Each structure stands twice: as structure tokens, then as C-alpha cells.
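Re-run with default settings, no changes from the original entry. Doing this only to confirm the output is reproducible before filing.
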Amino acid sequence: MKGQYFGWLKDALNKKLSGGNSTTVGNSTVEKKPSSVNLSAPQLPQLALPKQPLEARLRKVGEAWEIRIEKGFVEELVIDGESATIYHEISGTETWKSIAVGQSVIVTCVTDLKGKLTGTPALSVVSDAGLTGAHFKPQVFAYSGNAGSHVRRLYKLTLDSGKPKLIRYHGEQKVEHYSERVGMLNVRSSDEGAFYEIGKTYVSSDDKVHYRTFVQLAGEGQTVIKADAEGEATSDSIKVKRIKDLGEYRQVHVTDAGNAVLVRGNGVDVEIPTSHKISMTVKDGLVVAAAGEDDEDAAGWWGTILHQFFTDITDSTPYAQLQLNYENGILVSVAKSGPTEPLTDVPGTEGTPGSATHTTHAVN
């Protein structure tokens, strides 16, 4: 009963103040130009009724319509910053604006790349073509992003059986705005080198963020990326195999060298001079130890062997000579000469001295 009384009182007061020429449509009042009030008539008690934020009042001026929106705010919910909520008063309220049937009352919020309001939210009356805004887009990898112009429709004026009707699209007493999208960036360390970024770009046409993928190149050799077992679900992680060595008697050693993985030999460094005896230890095809041994008893012969050739066995004039030079039992050079340039014996030079042996061949 109490609510019904105050509802009746509000309607009666509106009719009295407008000379009985107003009509209430939902939460809005459609009124004609107020006529004069008969002060001699009994007056209803004056009751100060609070005005609701963003409440609409409609009136007819001649053949045209005017609308008035009560003072309201845009409540901005921000992700970063000291304050989580910021209130922005909407400009253009508390004034009568011309409106035609089919037009709408909107609030426009201009934002930066992060979705934060950069100006004062503004109230305006537009046709349907003016309802198109632009959603802000943050920077996502290679996509640079764009500022936004967000539109909130509050009311639309229509006709219902020839009578004006306000359709309310916004049921709250405030307009909420929040930056529900976040930017994405490939971060880099201070290290020097070539950076390969995982995030690629944002495609606004289908509202998709694109990332790059790893690919295991086809071909011979061992794979580096561990493949998921056949028949099992895709792993949550891309697994990269480790590089290891054999352990004992390993052919190569794999070690950490700061920015690199160092692959080196087994560290066996042996220089073997000319020797008669060489010992080696081989494991898994790898020489793991080597040594040379030499002594006088095992040393090879040092010296020169001359071979003389004659054309006739009865003739002592040499036809040609062939000289073979040996060092430590190894033939190191061969020389020849004609009968006018005879070669001579060369004694041993190192180790055990050698002696020349002459072999004579007859040539028929």
C-alpha cells in the first residue's frame, strides 16, 4: 500500500506540474509544453522526488520531440593503477536535445590502446548509422593495436500505435567500462644474438592471436624434438632431447661452455716419433692410449745400397748405377746415374752404421 501511494503521488504531482498534459512511459515521462498552473486550485503537497541517474524525460515542442537525460557517470574498472574504479561524469546530460523517431541516445567513450578512457564520455543523439564504434585493440606481437571509440546505447525513440515510446537499452544507473583485453609482447633478455619470437601477430578479421610453432625438419639423423607416442594424447610441453656422451671410454665429451654446448674429443694427445714399436689401446673404435718405443737393438739399418748394371760381363765399364738410401730401415730415396757419373757408397748416418752392398747385374 505504501508503494502504491507514493506511485500515485508521483503521477499526480507530475500531472499537476505539467498541467495535466504529460504521459508516463515506463521510467520516462512524455510531456508537452507545460501550461499555466491554477494557483487558486487546491495544491498537492510538494514532495522532493530524487532524480534517477540517466533517467530520460521526453517532451514535444511543436511537432518535434526533445529528450533530457539526467546526470550520470561512466564507471571505469581498470586493471592497473592505484585505483581499481574511476568515475567519469558524462557530458551533455541535463539539457534538452532534439530527437526524431528512430534515433537513439548514446554515450561515447574514447580509449587508448590499453582501453583506458582518454577523454570525457559524451552524450549524443544519433541515427542507427552512428551506433557503429571501434573496439580498442591492444598491441599483440607484430600487431600495433588501435585506440577505441566505444558506444553505449541508452534509449531509442519509436512509435507504438502512433504514440511515442522510449525503448530503454541500458538498465543500470551507470555505464560500465573496463579493458577486458590485454596486450601481448615477446620479451627479450639483454643477451646478444638472434632472437626467434614465439608470438607472431593478431588478426583482427577473425579476432585470433597467432603463435609460431616448432617444426622437426625431415631427413636423416636423430630427431631433436621428442615426438609424442603414437596413440597418446598430445603432450602439454614440447620436449627437446638432451645431448649426452657415452660415459666411460667415450668417443666425445659433451660439456657446457656458457652460450654453447662444447663437443670435443677424449683428450688423448700423444705424439709418436719414428719408432720401431708402437702400442695402442682401442675402445669402441676409439684410440684411448698410444705410445712409441725405440732402442738400439730394435733400430733399423741406416745406409745406401748401390746396384750396378753392365752391358757386357767381360767389360768392366759400368753402364748404369741405381742408389737406394735407407734410414732406420725405411727406404727414403732412390737415385740413378750413367757410366760417366758414377755413384759412391754412403755409409750409415745415424744409429747403427751401415755398409754398402753392391750387386752386379749383367745385361745382354
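DSSP finds one helix and 24 strands in the chain. Residues 1-10, 15-46, 348-364 have pLDDT under 50 and may be disordered.
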